[in-house]
């Protein structure tokens, strides 16, 4: 079980997800401050994750399978807001994300998000095709560990 950011960093290297320091590029404090100015105060653990791997983390994400890194997250969050506003304007039923939601990852446009309310850690939620918000993980660290475990499985199978 990954308990903190140092254990996450170690796991990325020992699993082969990250081969060297150049594979691991984090966000700087200005980038984190930019997110917080738009979406609210991020949980401490998520800020630590962004500082560790906010721009790249070796084999963690391949190609465009997920929107996961800083530049993709900014676009994803803007896109989510646009979709909701368009749906409301067209009179469509939709499930709006909470006001202080921040999408931390998306697969084919379906977002995982957290509530940016300045907690140490928080639950991660998923909004799927059925427009129902579901809790995906009890904590951001649990969520990232599940992500890492999936990639480790793919590496063992020779798929990454």
Describe the model.
The protein has 160 residues and is α+β, with helices and mostly antiparallel strands. It has helices spanning 5-14, 29-39, 44-53, 70-89, 140-156, and strands at residues 24-25, 56-57, 101-107, 110-115, 124-127, 133-137. The chain is globular and about 50 Å long. The relative contact order is 0.16. The model has no long low-confidence stretch (mean pLDDT 92).
Q: Over the alpha carbons, how many angstroms does the gyration radius reach?
A: 16 Å
Shape: globular
Q: How is the largest sheet built, in terms of strand order?
A: 3-4-5-6
Low-pLDDT residue intervals, each spanning 5 or more residues = none
Described by its quaternary structure, the protein is: single chain
Strand pairing plus helix content: what structural class? Answer: alpha+beta
Number of helices: 5
Secondary-structure element string: HEHHEHEEEEH
**Average pLDDT reading:** 92
Topology:
Layout: H1 5-14, E1 24-25, H2 29-39, H3 44-53, E2 56-57, H4 70-89, E3 101-107, E4 110-115, E5 124-127, E6 133-137, H5 140-156
Antiparallel strand pairs: 1-2, 3-4, 4-5, 5-6
What are the salient characteristics of this protein?
160 residues, alpha+beta, four-stranded antiparallel sheet, globular
Put the structure in a nutshell.
The protein has helices spanning 5-14, 29-39, 44-53, 70-89, 140-156; strands at residues 24-25, 56-57, 101-107, 110-115, 124-127, 133-137. It is an alpha+beta fold and 160 residues long.
């Amino acid at each position: 079980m990954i308990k903190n950011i140092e254990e996450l960093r170690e796991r990325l290297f020992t699993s082969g997800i990250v081969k060297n320091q150049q594979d691991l590029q984090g966000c700087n404090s200005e980038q984190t401050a930019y997110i917080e100015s738009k979406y609210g105060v991020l949980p401490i653990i998520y800020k630590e994750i962004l500082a560790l791997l906010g721009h790249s983390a070796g084999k963690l994400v391949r190609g465009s399978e997920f929107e996961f890194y800083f530049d993709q997250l900014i676009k994803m969050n803007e896109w989510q807001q646009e979709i909701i506003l368009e749906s409301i304007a067209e009179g469509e039923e939709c499930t709006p994300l909470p006001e202080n939601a921040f999408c931390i990852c998306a697969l084919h446009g379906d977002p995982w998000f957290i509530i940016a309310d300045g907690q140490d850690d928080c639950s991660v939620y998923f909004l799927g095709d059925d427009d129902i918000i579901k809790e995906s993980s009890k904590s951001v660290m649990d969520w990232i560990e599940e992500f890492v475990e999936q990639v480790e499985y793919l590496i063992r199978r020779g798929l990454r």
